[in-house]
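Q: Now give one record:
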Amino acid sequence: MKRILGLLFLFFLLSCDKNSTNRNPYLQEISFRFDLNLNLPLYSSLTNTGSAVYVGNAAVGTRGAFVINTGFNSYMAWEASCPNHAPNDCSTMSLNGQLVTCSCEGYEYNLFTGQLMNRPDDGKRYHDLLFYRATYSGNSVIISN
């Protein structure tokens, strides 16, 4: 019985993967908390489902964040720096409705899902947008990481 348990333990030990994270090598995970007051004109459009805003505050993420109202007092927040290369002069993406575009390569991302819309089929690994927590409370949306 001890041999069987020893073999099972050895099997489980060997089946562990040391590289199990899906970490983006280009973007740092920065801790922050930022409140968006929906009564302010800058963020009032977030009261409408499907509306998105860019939060370019230096205290938010690497290059700011995009926040979108997904309906029923639910919000999503994403890093504004393109996740497929290191931050540089052209890596801050631009908002166009419910899509954001990287001006470096022209990559487009969906703000409802965070997915890369025009993923090249060249065998390389491409990353989706970096997600931030977005919580609705009263007349505020709190984004944090």
Summary: Helices lie at 2-15.
